[in-house]
Amino acid sequence: MLFFKYLFMVGVLCFTIIRTLIKDPEKETEDYDPKKLLSLSHFLSLSFFNSSVAWIIFKVDSFLWLAFFSVVCKIILLASDKTKNAWLVKPVVICICLIFVFILRVPKESDSFINYLSSKGTYHCPLRYECVKITTPVNKKDEIHTKAEIIPIDDSSFNWYVLFSKGAIRLKGKEGKIVEIKGTNIAGWWIVTEEKGPS
User: Fold this and answer.
1) What is the tens place of the pLDDT at every residue in 128-178?
2) SS (H, E, C) the chain
3) Residue 68: how many CA atoms within 13 Å on its side-chain side?
4) CB of 63 closer than 8 Å to CB of 55
5) Whether 172 contacts 152, CB under 8 Å
6) How far is the C-alpha of 96 from the C-alpha of 68, rounded, in Å?
7) Which residues pair with 171 in a beta bridge?
8) Rounded to the nearest 10 degrees, what angle do helices 61-78 and 34-58 cross at?
9) What UniProt keywords are attached to this protein's entry (predicted)?
10) For helices 61-78 and 86-105, angle between their N-to-C axes, nearest 10 degrees
11) Which residues pair with 158 in a beta bridge?
């Protein structure tokens, strides 16, 4: 089912790109009114400002992306083709804005990595000194049983490097077996690896 969703999305994307490219620019310019473009510019400024403030207050990523797209549209609208090196200015400014958004999305709080692990289902770490590991093993009769195991936290660390963050947590399981979970956050997305070592 997921494959068909991706296939449908690719089809829609291809259709919109082709439809945009076959339009006649001269006929389109006749429909545009400078007053309407000015209203659009004001709307984009309003959208950028309010979305930015909403993101600062509520820390919801949707507001940050809305602010980013608003400022990108504003740059495309204001940067005239008559501007010197306009073909280079637009992409450079947009890339700078994108890097700025990526930096804002990188978590700075030390608990962000543990909170991410807790949201993924296997490990829940409500306290700083222990986690609960939840597994659903299947027995010989094909019956699923939920199993909860309390595992103490041996050590944890978190470092913020502006463009990315790194987090790690070391758990001490049964018979002293060590499980180390490491994560790297790039632009707000975590890449997590789990390593099991001897006691």
Assistant:
1) 788 998 888 777 777 787 888 888 998 999 999 999 999 999 998 777 788
2) CHHHHHHHHHHHHHHHHHHHHCCCHHHHHHHCCHHHHHHHHHHHHHHHHHHHHHHHHHCCHHHHHHHHHHHHHHHHHHCCCCCCCHHHHHHHHHHHHHHHHHHHHCCCCCCHHHHHHHHCCCEECCCCCEEEEEECCECCCCCECCEEEEEEEEEEEEEECCCEEEEEEEEECHHHCEEEEEEEEECCEEEEEEEEECC
3) 18
4) yes
5) yes
6) 11
7) 153, 179
8) 150
9) Membrane, Transmembrane, Transmembrane helix
10) 170
11) 167
Q: Which residue has the tokens 């919801």?
A: 60
pTM beyond cutoff 0.85: no
Rounded distance between C-alpha atoms, residue 108 and residue 159, angstroms: 8
Encoded tokens for 110: 């030390």
Phi, psi at 156, each rounded to 5°: -150, 155
- Cβ partners under 8 Å of residue 74, min gap 6: 41, 44, 45, 48
- Nearest residue to 131 (alpha-carbon basis) of 145, 116, 110, 146: 116
